[in-house]
Amino acid sequence: MPRWSADNIPWDQFDARKLHPDHLALVKAASLTESNAAHYTVYLRNVFKGDAQLTGLLGEWQLEEEQHGRMLGRYAELADATFHYAEAFQAFKDGYVIPVDVETSVRGSRVGELQARCIVETGTSSFYTAMAEATEEPVLRAICRRIAGDEFRHYRMFLDGVRQYQEMERVPLWSRLKVTIGRVREADDDELAFAFHCGNSREQTYDHARSNRAYAQAAYRLYRRHHTEKVVGMIFKASGLNSRGWLSRLAARWAWSKLQDRSAAA
Predict the structure, then answer these.
(1) Do the beta carbons of residue 95 and residue 206 sit within 8 Å?
(2) Where is 6: in which H helix or E strand?
(3) Is residue 169 part of a domain?
(4) Is residue 161 assigned to a domain?
(5) What is the helix (H) or strand (E) element at residue 65, kind and residue range?
(6) CATH code of 67's domain
(7) pLDDT per residue rounded down to tens, the chain (266 residues)
(8) Residues of the domain holding 124
(9) How far apart are the first and last CA of the chain?
């Protein structure tokens, strides 16, 4: 069961004057992607069929992710009376469908699948951490801090799985790096762009490039250098690399430079 609830959020402290419009737009999109955990749970349970311990943990993970979506959706409705979370989520589910009828991971191994989940949780934990530090609105800050804590725990859960399955599968480093690069590149796929569209501009025809630019413009400006350093370290650790070595430091500098370039271009 989730470790916190709506009762832990100071809803009565909401201050619209302190809410940046870009932050609200991101919240609307995030409420939809978080709420979609049930589909991923079906997929992951198929991939890890026979592992009762992990599939049990996935059930808990799903409940926490769905709670994130509900809390963010409630917040978005509080901040914007014209936003209807349930309708936006239905539009997102109808338009973004992932194949779940599988028996093996699309990453090529169970290690690869768990590693990919680590990278996703790296992204979400850093996003909510950056949002909590960037926003001046007290309710949004409280929600993001709670969610960030959950996402860090989820990362550790999947990382434990990576280490357990690596003992059995012995996936070579080059293959793990291929998964890392592939999953990082997927940040520009349809999921985030379409969620941003459904949360903020459903009256328009969906255009991936336009929605992707709008999401990037709002999201990338949240981040500071220490966030990118944390992200790179977590990704390196999940990939089987030294998270504190010279290569990690070099990659963190490159990532920060790249992020600044994309933020300016967006």
Answers:
(1) yes
(2) none
(3) yes
(4) yes
(5) helix 52-79
(6) 1.10.620.20
(7) 789 999 999 999 999 999 999 999 999 999 999 999 998 999 999 999 999 999 999 999 999 999 999 999 999 999 999 999 999 999 999 999 888 888 899 999 999 999 999 999 999 999 999 999 999 999 999 999 999 999 999 999 999 999 999 999 999 999 999 999 999 988 778 899 999 999 999 889 999 999 999 999 999 999 999 999 999 999 999 999 999 999 999 999 999 998 887 777 65
(8) 6-265
(9) 39
Token pair for 107:
């990453």
Q: Do 44 and 186 touch, CB atoms closer than 8 A?
A: no
pTM of the model: 0.95
- Domain contains 154: yes
- Residues sharing a CB contact under 8 Å with residue 40, sequence separation 6 or more, in sequence order: 62, 98
**Residue 1 belongs to some domain of the structure:** no
* Residue 195, token pair as written in the block: 């969620």
Domain count, the chain: 1
Give CA–CA dist 68/128, Å, rounded: 11
Residues 74, 201, 77: CA angle, nearest 5 degrees: 15
